[in-house]
Amino acid sequence: MKEAIAILTGGGPAPGMNTVVGSVAKTFLAKGYRVIGLHYGYSGLFNPSPRYEDLTFTQADYIFNQGGSYLTMSRFKPTDKDFEENFNLNFFTENNVKLLVTVGGDDTASTANRIAKFLEAKHYPIANIHVPKTIDNDLPLPAGTPTFGYQSAKEGGTVIGRAVYNDARTSANWFVVAAMGRSAGHLAFGIGSACHYPMIVIPEMFNKTEITVEKIVNLVVSSIIKRKIMGIDYGVAMISEGVFHALSDEEIKKSGIHFSYDEHGHPELGKVSKAHIFNEMLENKLKELKIKVKSRPVEIGYEVRCQTPIAYDLVYCSELGMGVYKLFSEGKTGCMVYISQDGFVSPLYLKDLQDPATGKIPPRLVNIDSDKIQQVIDNLMNYITPADYEAAKAYVADPEVFDFKKILNW
Fold it and tell me: Confidence class of residue 128 from pLDDT cuts 50, 70 and 90?
């Protein structure tokens, strides 16, 4: 029987999913392997009747430059009981599968790590290689290497973001934009800085103080007042959805929103508009301060997950797909495929990235102290400083409350 590989996609979509799957398929088909595409992510590996299909060169060639994922995705996360009782080893033996390729983000990577350790402990002769994906850019790849999909999502978000900024300027209004990023503010800061937004709020900025609803709102008010002092009656504030994840239960209640949670324990932020929540809180604050400003909410999220990948990700994801074969041919397993900035393929072992206590891979956060970030904060963002206190008294009684650096305890 011909040797086979199986490939699945997990978590949420990101531009380049099909490029990875198509490139993996093309490469392994050319080497004489059968390529099996598993639908519904990890659920197929813990199901006696998984849904799968053979991928052909024609299919691979058709999907590689398309957005979305041809292989149906799933956020299924196996329990310890699933591993012991439901792991479908027959799928591997009956199809002569020698390699499992997993494509996904942080949760998918953590599950891939569990599978790799499980297979090693059970002496199952199956290799496992993971391809890191997430528009959040929060997997800890070396040297700041981005996760695939991030650059395309940032580009798509920037197209929307530029239009929003032009609308603000045209209509003399403010907009509150919220961008995806469950644990880290890479996407929000990337879009916000590309659009020269006068205020960007990400969780990493609160490295010296607790995140509260009041502080988030006051940062935006700080920018609004500063722009008024500058004679500018418009602007856009970018807020990362990740600030909600860092809020205490008490602070979340202050937002007035009651969240449901997904199977990974994350608030299901996709069910509510974070931009609407932030905008409503801002409007209430402005009304309290008697500052006349019109603000409107804009959400950047699902719109950018399945967009057509840009050239960067088309090339990057093709390299990752081909890199899977290189690592497999070298006998590597239980690792992520990594492409260095100078173009070399190497394994990044999941076990070396995991937290010893939890077994999970910790997210890569925005380095708020880097020149890249601080230059944007110092030169592109607008906010109240001590030099503005006197002028700011025309709008608020106590300008110090809205001092950007004092709010953050910087």
Answer: confident
Structure tokens at 121: 């402990």
Q: Virtual CA dihedral for 178, 70, 51, 120, nearest 10 degrees?
A: -70
Angle of CA points 393, 398, 403, to nearest 5°: 95
Domain formed by 4-148+309-353, architecture: 3-Layer(aba) Sandwich (3.40)
Other C-beta atoms lying within 10 Å of the C-beta of residue 261: 9
Neighbours of 303 (CB within 10 A): 14
- What is the per-residue pLDDT across 335-361, written as a single tens digit (0 to 9) for each? 899 999 899 999 998 777 778 888 777
Instruction: Clarify whether 138 is annotated catalytic.
Output: no
Question: What percentage of the chain reaches a pLDDT higher than 90?
Answer: 69
When comparing pLDDT for 363 and 366, which is higher?
366
Q: Decide: helix, strand or coil at residue 32.
A: coil
- Report the CATH number of the 154-304+380-407 domain: 3.40.50.460
Q: Please give the Cα distance from 156 to 186 (Å, whole number).
A: 14
Provide the 10 A C-beta neighbour count for residue 359.
13
Contact status, residue 339 vs residue 321, Cβ threshold 8 Å: no
**Catalytic-role residue among 54, 61, 82, 136:** 136
CATH 3.40.50.450 residue ranges for the chain:
4-148+309-353
Beta bridge partners of 8: 38, 102
For 354, other C-beta atoms within 10 Å of its C-beta total 18
> What's the number of CA atoms in the CB half-sphere (13 Å) around residue 292?
1
Give residue 270's pLDDT band: very low, low, confident or very high (50, 70, 90).
Answer: low
